[in-house]
Design brief:
Layout lengths: L7 H27 L30 E5 L14 E5 L2 E9 L7 E3 L5 E4 L8 E9 L5 E9 L5 E3 L1 E4 L5 E2 L5 E5 L6 H6 L1 E6 L5 E5 L3 E5 L9 E7 L4 E3 L2 E3 L2 E8 L3 E6 L4 E6 L2 E7 L12 E4 L2 E9 L10 E10 L6 E5 L17 E4 L10 H7 L6 E5 L19 H4 L2
Parallel strand pairs: 8-17, 10-18, 19-27, 25-26
Antiparallel strand pairs: 1-2, 2-5, 3-6, 4-5, 6-7, 9-11, 11-14, 12-15, 13-14, 15-18, 16-17, 19-20, 20-21, 22-27, 23-24, 24-25
Length: 414
């Protein structure tokens, strides 16, 4: 001891010790407020490494990569074969493609989730938006959004169709479409046309040449059937460089069932309505040198009065009648069932004297509603069936008029 009082030394040491404790307490407070909260495991212990600045697995980016062809912003894109969506290191879960009006393009994701393709062609000159989502093995999503525009064709075609929208027609009426350009890819065109019926029935198409496509069921339509036709030809490449520009849906109705049978030998026509014979009319059919075709024929046109000139159907100047009454076309080649005012009434039911048509007694001008021709005309509609039998002629060809019923179903669907 040096004689200095020692009472102050403990006081200084206590001050230092208290200051250190205060500083330590401050550091604890700052750490608690400004540092990261360690993540906890299920048992309450801290997860290893979470305080070292690493990203938690749940927040990692998806490994799935979505690719859309054509590329974003592409122009003049082909309407078929160009659009495809794929996923790598993941599987597609959602793909939507729609035009600027919101109309969606139907498509299908492959079974393995690796790709999506449209089930039909795209429309021409149209902008489409693509939205696709894929998930990786951890369930994390990756999305892709693109826009592209299809080509605007220089050469186009449409289909002229019959029957007309909203009409009521007979049970023999097919859907017949005549194209303005010859088709070299009939499969693509036929795929773009859908014909359905209510009540449902199997309906198949058949091509006559490269510019006509008809649709019908195996048997005549049932009375009261509603038929709907969807023409989705816009963008279909019917022949190289020639695209359809038609998109239309329409319907028509099948009326009562009327099937009339002409017996060229007996010289009569029996009119059957809904399974019952309602009238037997005397007729005159084709003369021995100009016989009437046999077969099932469909009324395709009706004229209260029309001109018939033999020169237009290969008979030269044999006849030119400017006012044939109550005429209904049965074939493209000129077969009609029509009124006849120039032959004696005794001819009907007793002689065949026509140039191949089926004649019914009538008066000039079609003004007498009591004649057999007027009676039949007033009770017939486009699409009604007229069957000719026992004529000494061949069967009419299916493409000669709307007469595909003369082709067996097995051949029609081949």
């Amino acid at each position: 001891m040096n004689g200095q009082p020692i009472s102050g030394t403990p006081a200084r040491r206590r001050g230092v010790r208290l200051g250190a404790l205060a500083a330590g307490a401050l550091m604890v407070v700052l750490t608690a407020c400004g540092g990261e909260e360690p993540s906890r495991t299920a048992d309450g212990t801290g997860a290893k490494g979470t305080g070292q600045g690493t990203v938690a697995p749940d927040n990692a980016a998806s490994q799935a990569v979505v690719t859309v062809l054509p590329k974003d912003g592409a122009d003049a894109v082909a309407t078929s074969g160009a659009l495809k969506v794929t996923a790598e290191q993941g599987k597609l879960t959602t793909v939507t493609v729609a035009d600027s009006e919101g109309d969606a393009v139907e498509g299908k994701i492959s079974a393995d989730g690796a790709s999506w393709e449209p089930l039909a062609h795209l429309s021409a000159g149209t902008q489409y938006k693509v939205h696709a989502i894929a998930k990786d093995a951890e369930g994390r999503e990756s999305a892709k959004d693109t826009t592209f525009t299809t080509l605007t064709p220089k050469n186009t075609f449409i289909g002229h169709y019959t029957p007309e929208a909203g009409t009521t027609v007979g049970v023999g009426m097919p859907v017949s479409i005549n194209f303005t350009r010859g088709i070299t890819d009939p499969e693509a065109v036929e795929k773009a046309i859908k014909v359905t019926a209510e009540p449902a029935v199997e309906i198949e198409g058949h091509w006559f040449g490269n510019d006509r496509l008809d649709f019908r069921p195996e048997q005549y339509w049932k009375a009261g059937t509603k038929v709907t036709v969807e023409l989705n030809l816009d963008g279909v490449e019917g022949r190289p460089g020639v695209y359809g520009k038609q998109k239309k849906t329409y319907s028509f109705t099948i009326g009562r069932r009327q099937v009339s049978t002409v017996d060229a030998s007996a010289k009569t026509m029996k009119v059957e309505r809904d399974g019952k014979i309602i009238k037997t009319l005397p007729i005159t059919a084709g003369a021995p040198s100009t016989t009437t075709y046999n077969g099932e024929m469909v009324i395709s046109e009706k004229y209260k009065v029309t001109r018939m000139n033999g020169a237009t159907v290969g008979f030269g100047g044999e006849y030119d009648i400017k006012d044939v009454p109550h005429a209904m076309r049965l074939s493209t080649s000129g077969t009609f069932v029509h009124g006849n005012y120039w032959a004696p009434k005794s001819t009907f039911g007793s002689q065949n004297v026509s140039h191949g048509c089926v004649g019914l007694s009538d008066t000039r001008g079609a003004g007498d509603s009591s004649t057999p021709a007027a009676w039949f005309f007033d009770r017939s509609i486009i699409g009604d069936v007229v069957i000719v039998k026992n004529s000494k002629d061949k069967q009419i060809k299916p493409e000669n008029g709307l007469n595909g019923w003369n082709m067996p179903w097995s051949e029609w669907t081949a």
